[in-house]
Design goal:
The protein has about 525 residues and is of the alpha/beta class. The protein contains 19 helices and 13 strands. The strands form three sheets. The protein has a six-stranded mixed β-sheet, with helices on both faces. A five-stranded parallel β-sheet has the order 6-5-7-8-9, with helices on both faces. Strands 3-4 form a two-stranded antiparallel sheet. Helix 6 runs antiparallel to helix 12 and helix 14 packs parallel to helix 17. The radius of gyration is 25 Å and the shape is globular. Bound molecules: 6-O-phosphono-beta-D-fructofuranose.
């Protein structure tokens, strides 16, 4: 069935008219006009307190956006996703990362298979393995317990576990070292291994496909580092794999009894709650990992059941569309006032930009409005002393999410109050600005922010935040009619790199464009010098 592109619907036209009508209204005016605004545009749900009131919207805007969600059938597609329908149509797959956090004993039968039972079989295997390692009962080839865990993976097989490990480090076992190697740049592996002892190091090779060149190259070099010191036999005690492909894991030389499975219905960028999170479980323990899953589940249930006007991921997604398409915003900033969330923006870059960075819709038509925004950010207060100048006084509109917690993870003196004072001050300054006779010193204000507050950065909170953004991205992709679950845009560069690599060491003719030929010749002339 062919659908009407969203930008040709009646509600889109009404939103465009409404945008024109409220374009001139400043946030200062909106607050003056409606003293109840902060209360009516704040939602308290799923363990979060989210203040949308410093956005360039009114209650009427919200209600129109809710109509937009209904027109795009966000709720219907959400239900189809949770039920296991093959909504990833280009790859003919279900999209079931939400099944990864369903409780034990639940059941979800998809095409004859109880996927929740499968999920818990693997979670139990991960927990048993984690307990062995954490209690020092899993010993390496020389009989010594594991003291360092090195996760080798890239993209979704790295960003999720690396971000989550960093976020939850205070909840981790500090006796063990955790490292994450992703880049094909040899520096990454070298730096990770330079002070480790092969006898006490465990490698987790994480790759959904087990065909990713960076991961396999790093894994081979890591194996050479290990076997050079301890012999071939050591691989069995020092290498485990996380993948959907038992065949390729075996081909690589890892015993499949040391493999933790996941499934093609888990997208790489949605995979941290699967076995891809094994390093996180080793760090924070099985109980901590289950708390992380419980936080995700809480947000899933909220997304499934809350009415659209109080549904956090839906509202965030709708606002994302509002700014992208009606205010021509090109980017969005995510600014966590929690240093442990320093990798959260990088994680969200893959989640959002690999999902919605597309120009063709599910029906193969060009998407004629802007789609996925550029996502970026750094923790506050550091960012304040770097790029906030542009957010306050630059020419672009950059909607920003500010994330903070009422409790410090590591309380020292008045640090946390100062941190949070800065968060509140920035959103106030961005919204209301400050007049000045000198235009250089004037803050125009009217710059939108959403403030997301939680109690403390613990496993549940991290789970809630991840699921919040997953469903936000889903909402946006659904409105644009995009399949948010494939990533064909990453393929071409990979294919070309495979063709170029042998050319670098050779001296044969080159058949690229003039620029690429010249760059390769420069590299050939200089690489050994
Ligand atoms: O190149 C992009 C990508 O396919 C991501 O989508 C994925 O997370 C990453 O590569 C790693 O893939 P794999 O887990 O199969 O090694």
């Amino acid at each position: 069935m062919t659908t009407t592109p969203i930008s040709q619907t009646e509600i889109w036209r009404r939103l465009a008219d409404h945008a024109t009508a409220i374009e001139g209204a400043t946030l200062a005016q909106l607050f003056a006009d409606d003293p109840g605004r902060a209360a009516s545009l704040t939602v308290e749900a799923a363990g979060l307190h989210v203040d949308f009131s410093k956005n360039r919207m009114t209650v009427e805007t919200r209600d129109l956006l809710v109509e937009l969600a209904a027109t795009a059938d966000v709720a219907g597609r959400r239900d189809a996703m949770f039920a296991g329908a093959r909504i990833n149509t280009t790859e003919d797959r279900s999209v079931l990362h939400t099944a990864l956090r369903r409780p034990k004993g639940d059941s979800l039968i998809v095409e004859g298979v109880d996927v929740v039972a499968d999920v818990h079989r693997v979670l139990d295997k991960m927990a048993a393995f984690s307990d062995e390692v954490r209690r020092g009962r899993w010993v390496g080839a020389t009989g010594r317990p594991i003291e360092a865990v090195v996760n080798i993976g890239i993209g979704g097989s790295d960003l999720g576990p690396a971000m989550a490990y960093r976020a939850l480090r205070p909840h981790s076992d500090r006796d063990r070292t955790f490292r994450f190697v992703s880049n094909i740049d040899p520096t990454d592996l070298h730096e990770a291994l330079v002070d480790l002892d092969p006898a006490t190091t465990m490698f987790i090779v994480v790759s959904k496909t087990f065909g990713t060149i960076e991961t396999l190259t790093n894994a081979r070099s890591a194996r050479a580092w290990l076997t050079g010191a301890l012999g071939e036999e050591a691989v069995a005690k020092h290498f485990v794999a996380v993948s959907t492909s038992a065949e390729r894991v075996a081909e690589f030389g890892i015993d499949t009894t040391n493999m933790f499975e996941f499934w093609d219905w888990v997208g790489g960028r949605y995979s941290v709650p699967s076995a891809v999170g094994l390093s996180l479980m080793l760090a924070i323990g099985p109980d901590g990992f289950h708390r992380f899953l419980a936080g995700m589940r809480e947000m899933d249930e909220h997304f499934l059941s809350a009415p659209p006007e109080r549904n956090l991921p839906m509202l965030m997604g709708l606002l994302g569309v509002w700014y992208t398409n009606f205010f021509a915003a090109q980017s969005t900033a995510v600014l966590p006032y929690a240093d442990h969330l320093s990798r959260f923006p990088a994680y969200l870059q893959q989640l959002d930009m690999e999902s919605n960075g597309k120009g063709v819709d599910r029906e193969g038509r060009t998407v004629i409005v802007d789609s996925g925004p550029i996502v970026w950010g750094e923790p506050g207060t550091n960012g304040q002393h770097a790029f906030y100048q542009l957010i306050h006084q630059g020419t672009r509109l950059i909607p920003a999410d500010f994330i903070g917690f009422s409790h410090a993870t590591d309380p020292i003196g008045a640090h946390h109050d100062l941190l949070m004072a800065n968060l509140f001050a920035q959103t106030e300054a961005l919204a209301f600005g400050q007049d000045h006779d000198d235009p250089q010193r004037r803050f125009t204000g009217n710059r939108p922010t959403t403030t997301i507050l939680g109690d403390r950065l613990d496993p549940e909170a991290l789970g809630r935040l991840i699921a919040l953004y997953e469903h936000k991205v889903f909402t946006m992709g659904t409105i644009w009619g995009i399949n948010s679950f494939d990533q064909f845009g990453v393929e071409l560069g990979k294919v070309l790199a495979v063709a170029i690599e042998p050319e670098l060491a050779g001296d044969g003719d080159l058949d690229h464009d003039g620029s690429t030929n010249a760059l390769i010749r420069w590299y050939r002339a200089n690489r050994l010098g």
